[in-house]
Write a structure and sequence with these properties.
single chain; 48% helix
């Protein structure tokens, strides 16, 4: 499930995996790879979503409450869009 251009969530049999796209300038990025991600592993989707929200909030530098509130609203909107897209795709598959 793609959350936005920076974050996506995938899963396997054991984990929910949060993937954050690395910058091309990140020294840990592979030069020949088109996209490189840092992975974080969680037992639940809720834990994964809370992690993304917390990382984005910390990324604001906690300058002021208005900035933090805007970041929360933006991430919430991204998550809602991703869930709606996933729900619509699932409904289309079930209709077949």
């Amino acid at each position: 499930m793609v959350i936005n251009s920076e974050w996506k969530i995938e899963s396997d049999d054991l984990n929910v995996i949060v993937m954050r796209k690395k910058s091309k300038n990140d020294p840990r990025s592979k030069a020949d790879a088109p996209d490189s991600y840092e992975n974080h592993y969680f037992a639940t989707i809720a834990g994964a979503l809370i992690f993304i929200l917390e990382r984005e909030i910390r990324g604001t530098g906690l300058k002021d409450l208005k900035t933090v509130a805007k970041k929360i609203e933006a991430i919430e909107a991204d998550i809602n869009r991703a869930v709606k897209k996933l729900t619509a795709t699932s409904a289309n598959v079930l209709d077949r």
